[in-house]
Amino acid sequence: MLHEFFAIALYSRALTFMSRSKIWHRFCNDSTVGKNGQPPLSVTILKEVIMRKNLYPASLSTSGIGLDMLSESDKAHLHAAVLEVLNTIGVRFECDEALAYLDGAGAVVDFDTQIVRFPEYLVNEALVSAPNGLIMYGKTPEYDAYLGEGRVNWIPFGSGIYVEDLETGEIRSSKKSDQVDCTRIIDALDEYDVCMETVVPQDVPAVTAPLHSFEAHVSNTNKNVTVGPADKRTAESVVEMAAAIAGGLAQLQKRPFFNFGGCSISPLMMPDSTCQAIMVGARNNIPVGCLSMAMAGGTSPVTLEGTIVVALAEVISGVVLSQIVKKGAPILIGTSTCTMDLRHNAAAMVGTPELALISSSFAQMGMYYKIPSLVAGT
């Protein structure tokens, strides 16, 4: 078994080496034209070689192995519960622009309470139109990463607020310079496919912190970068910055080298910042990750099944908004959902067995919906 593990690791390394070395240069130098004016075979192969498509977990086959927490009937029951929550309880959207979009598409909107209830057909239509897979583009093709088809990719978790100073050993608030250091490390590690925002720059004005964060990350890695906008103005400013780097908005929309990230607020609330990330992202073909951070026993039901339903309802409401703004808009659903420690200071318990069970089940539901998912690890 140990020998098989190292064989898989070496095989993966070989694929990475091939995609980033001689094969890349050979195909780049091929300028011939194939039959009927079509791209030559080498150009077609180039797209497969260059784009990073990670292996299926623990296997060289197309099936892999995994922790299957849910049966097919379990998934159907969870989806039915999600539909019931969205249709009868609804989600509060703290964004007038989002409310207008949802109202125009057929959702039942109470503009006084900002609560939106979703007809079943509206939810299912959005799940169908959302892409089954996404390409997280890098600045150059060898840093492209494909998400979907049950493949496993890796990113660092983000938005830390404290660091241990490498020079003094002091535990202090994070700075923009710490973002630069973390990003350079992530860029150097092949195991990471996307660079999520690492720490928060607390030495810059809060109103412009997302712009500083984007600049610090995108200047120090060629990998796709995650940024969380604070509002509509911030989101649109990030798009302007990225368009300047890409050589224009049209070029950026063809190969967006960053993605927006946003969280719901449990239970069942979508803040303006996340709504704006979803809407600005959809208009500009920028992938958006909609993440729930519910806490079982605190901001969601104490049962894991109930918590999974709440988390799914929150992020699926984000999927509906994105597909109303633009059908086929790139979006992924995510969770960093855990349990609340009710005995010791009501702390969020990250890295517990319960988190692993929730994440595993959520990932299975992502495959059930055929939408790429992001889940917290341990």
Write a brief structural summary.
This protein has 378 residues and is an alpha/beta fold. The chain is 44% helix and 15% strand.
Shape: globular
Give the strand content. Answer: 15-25%
Total helix count?
13
Number of domains: 2
CATH superfamily of the largest domain: Trimethylamine methyltransferase-like
Distance between the termini: 23 Å
Low-confidence stretches: 1-49
Describe the sheet with the most strands.
6 strands, parallel
Rg over CA atoms, rounded to whole Å, is 21 Å
CATH class of the largest domain: Alpha Beta
Query: Element order, helices and strands?
Result: HHHHEHEEHEEEEHEHEHHEEHEEHEEEHE
Looking at this protein, list some descriptive labels:
378 residues; 2 domains; 13 helices; TIM Barrel; disordered N terminus; alpha/beta
